[in-house]
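ugh ok so i messed up the first submission bc i forgot one of the chains. this is the corrected input, ALL of the components this time, i swear. 884 residues overall. if the numbers dont match what u have on ur side tell me asap before i send this to the collaborators (the ones from the other lab, u know who)
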Amino acid sequence: MTPTMQAVIGLEIHVQLDCATKLFCSCPNRPGDDPNRNTCPTCLWLPGNLPRFSMEALEKATLACLALNCQVQQESAFDQKVYYYPDLPKGYQLSQFHRPLARHGWLDIVREDGTPQRVRIHKIHMEEDVARLVHEKEGRTTVSLVDFNRAGTPLVEIVTEPDLHSPADAMEFLRLLRMHLRHAHCSSCSMEQGTMRVDANISVRPLGSDELNAKVEIKNMNSIRHVGDAIAHETTRQETAVRTGEPIVTHTRLWDPDARITTPMRGKFAGPCVPDPSVPPIVISEEWLKERIRCLPEMPGIKTERFINSHGLTREEALQMSSEREIGHYFEAVLAQQAPPRLAAQWIATQLLPLLKERGEFPERISPEPARFAGLLRMLDQEEINANAAREVLRQLLDSTASAADIVAEGGYRQISGTDELESLVARVIAEHPTAADSFRQGTAKAMGFLMGKAMQASGGKANPRLLKELMERTLTR
Amino acid sequence: MQSEVFAHVNPSPDAGTGQGSLAGKRVGVQSLFSVRGWPCTGGSKALDGFQPLEDATVVRLLKEAGAVFMGNTHVSELGLGIAEDTSAQAVAEGQVDVALMLDTLGEARTAAARAGLYGFKPGWGRISRFGLMGLAPSMECIALLAAAPEDLSRVYAAIAHVDERDPSMVEAQSPSIPEGGAPPRKVRRAGFNPELVARLTPGEQKAFSRAMLQLEQAGLTPVEVSLPDWDLFAPTHQVITAVEASSSCGKYDGVRFGHRASGAKNWNEMYLQTRKEAFGLLLKTFLFQGAYFQFENYQAFEDACRVRGRLIRMSEQLFADLEVLALPTLQDGRDATAVRDIASLYQAFTLTLTANVTGQPAVTIPGCLRTNGHQDIGLQLMGPQGSETALLALAQQISVQTEEVA
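and heres the new structure output, hopefully the right one now
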């Protein structure tokens, strides 16, 4: 069936900034500590206290804006988003509503169908997080408990234009956004741990039209996959509603990951946003902004292109090496020790990182030291060891301080590349398995795999596989 | 312990070490100022039992300068108006040398003029507001009352320091105590507005003319100025202050401190019941107005902010040529202590709230606008931004002249 409807999707992404303190006081920014441990008269909003804006938060927020290609505004200001709820100790949330920190950003994604698309970012603003509520029963009475650890922690909210049209594109955008913000060291951006929260605004329209219909906001997705699932579900729900002539009303729905459906929650918040008279407007000088731009690391997209152009990596290899800032650093440090670039990229992606993850060491640190890892790669490249042996040597590199060469010498991992030795090995294996040899000669190609396996086994895994195969083929076809 | 003047009497006023610029000066602060270990009830049930954890910056500075704290004076609910205020009484009865008040509409100048005292409101952002139970951050300012103008200068010099805990402060150098009132060498003009003078009784008009003569003797040339937008100050002040007060009072929810209503079925009902019980009628009316402009008529609030910007620019132009603008403090027949509703509140403070809207310094001087058998309506001098020291010097100079005449 050809689709007749198109989904129009805009995302609102809250990202918790990786700062030492809260946004308006010097309490530690550690919401997960024991309840109400990280509080002070300012974030409890006891009378007489005044908010003091954190410069660290401004720096991190600005880096986030730059990482997403936004225009940082010379002047921005905080507003009071007024509503009464026990998670807000002062009856309003400080948020930049009228004058956000940055506007007009973008990220280039590759769509589901392989075509590139620029997704525009409408604005990025700073705001404080609210307290956490816990509803419990004490006997038969319901009690609401408040934990103020999270109250006042620094967030940025990123609002996209309604440029996305499929769950897959939305997921791709979120993955790219996360990669950029992690690169800039602004945030850990973990949806599972709540340092990145995504709300999706969805509407549908006839394909080819450019109208914007009543939109529905969905919340409560705690992974990028859930965002995709929720968007897919909500799009179908709205398309069905349109077909059956049911009106779509602007409201908020919650994603239920177990039932895999969305359920209505409440009307959309429409409280007032009043300029706050206590936090002075934030004025950014050109010099200060230049310094932030200087601090901004190379973004993944640019890094990918550079790895392709100057190191000859394939696009896939380059993407893997540029996905996280630490991986890129490590890769380049290994290259600086004269490791062959493609081999290094392949071994980091397929051998080293899985091994480190298995050992629970990544992403905290990447080992071994670049020089020792490069030593291993050079021996592999020069066929002094084979891949089997290299994997074993790599394990040992992680547990010792010895060089790759020492481990190879000590463990006898050097591969057998001597023609005499390999020739006698081949002759012995063929003699021991005449049936397999015959079937190869009669055209059964897979018999070669069997004979190679036997020969490799006989060498104790040390035979140079390339030479071994050449010799085996030559002997059998003679 | 309470008294007629003090909501909390300091049981052991420390005579001090006799050191510091304010050694031995007796001061009182409204119960809107945080003093560590003292109750700070702000005249409201919403602050029932609230004890600040530390001193307000201004309280700390006063203590460091050697001032002796006599107690917390009574205050109208959260400092709105002066109906319940005893600051002026504390000074007039000689219980303190200087009283500190929060001035949002002109409370300090009005209370001073009524009691025949000097009242001084510095420009906005000159004294730290850290530790104040404030209502309207963009309007309010700590102001001083004293019987002797030199006490104003001394105390002001001790407390006007930039404080990193109040980020709204004007980054300015700390003032020095004026040196005997030596006038700066330039043409000094004192403006007056004929329309405002025309609103006075004939007796008051005569007194005003005499006051202008006194200013002339002090070296200022009287000039007529026009104030075409004068009537916009009060409504602008009212809309903005009501909105700010509505936000400021959001924290009085009974969750973390203060009065909490009992017997509510859920938190929402607890909020409503608590706030219903905690606030008095005048404040409640004001908060209703603020909520109206926030939720129902935001456009009016935006307009008020725009008009305020225009009034400030107009005032800057006016004061580019003026050393002071002279006007009365009180308006005859409008008793600020008998205020029952928001309309009469704003009528009582019409002549003082201008300086709060523009954030300019102003001083009220007793004894100049007194007519036989009538109340002293207090000569008010408004100065341009940053003219605090010059204004205080002028007040001192005029006080000497007034004494000589008497």
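quick check: Chain B touches chain A through 41 residues (CB under 8 Å). that seems consistent at least. Residues 360 and 385 of chain B are 5 Å apart (CA to CA).
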